[in-house]
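### Sample
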Amino acid sequence: MKILAINPGSTSTKVALFEGDVCLLSRNVAHDAARLAEFASVSDQLPYRKQTIEALLAEEGADLSGLAAVVGRGGGLLPMEGGTYEVDERLLRDARIGANGVAHPAQLGSQLADEFAREHGVRAFVVNPPDVDELQEVARITGIRGVYRNVHLHALNLKETAIRHAASLGRPYEECNFVVCHIGGGVSVSAHRKGKMVDGFDIVGGEGPMAPTRCGSVAVADVAVYARERGIDALAALCHRSGGFVDLAGTSDAIELTRRAEEGDEACRLAWDAMIYQIGKCIGAMAAVLEGEVDGILLGGGMAYSDDLVARLRRACGWIAPVTAYPGEFEMEAMAAGAERVLAGREEARRYTGEPVWQPPACFAG
């Protein structure tokens, strides 16, 4: 069966066509940044993005006959359990407005999938969007009444990496415990217990290790001082745009950073060393969440191509469980695989409710 996968990014959209496990077409459609800037909201970009995708498919001579489903990168949704979700009006409504309060091109994934699916008379899905929240209750509690933790992680790649590694062990994901990391432009570290992502770090909110553009966890008192001196907007930008390597060394490019470190740039060396150190600490924290019952530590994302990073994390954490690197990402494959599992009857499609996955306990009310 043929499945079209669509993954919108900040200045481009990835498009892939699969037939079974075979990728027939995989392209990255570049968008004019100036053109994108003309739109008042992310959702306003929908017609423009669709036209550029249609032009690419026509240029490549993509044969969409026999198309069984279209799957888009989810985004803009309220917290939800992991899985493959059927795109319906409730899901589309929240994606259009960005119900989670985070304006991101991923909001367009479900909308684009719906547009193409309607044209071809097939089903549309989203798979493990960034809004997946499967935290266990104790992981949600902070020391501030009325403030509770949730997570924003690279859920799609984290879960697909775990599913693939479990299969390599000859076991289902639902029977395994893993600490899974995505180490790229953002760094996600998560604990997976028996098929659920029971804890992790809110990388949009500034938790976890630093990353190329993210500051990572910082003491609240220091954050308060920074906000008084620089302002709330500057502080917020550190969480997802101007922190990490950018603030410490003036670049978000890990390859450039490591090259400069090798050439003697002390700021770059310290930034690189500190990030790896922090990732190791966070892996240890997630191993504690799993009470030491860890079947594997998995490293994905673009920076997992670094032999130095993998070797250091293996040295730091290999005593906990075997460390396995899966460089790059499986996002397009993961999207197609999620749709295929539903179409083949191995998984039931979920319905997005838009309802909170968790309610604060009554004992903390008032």
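The two ends are 53 Å apart (CA to CA). This sample (Probable butyrate kinase) is used throughout the tutorial notebook.
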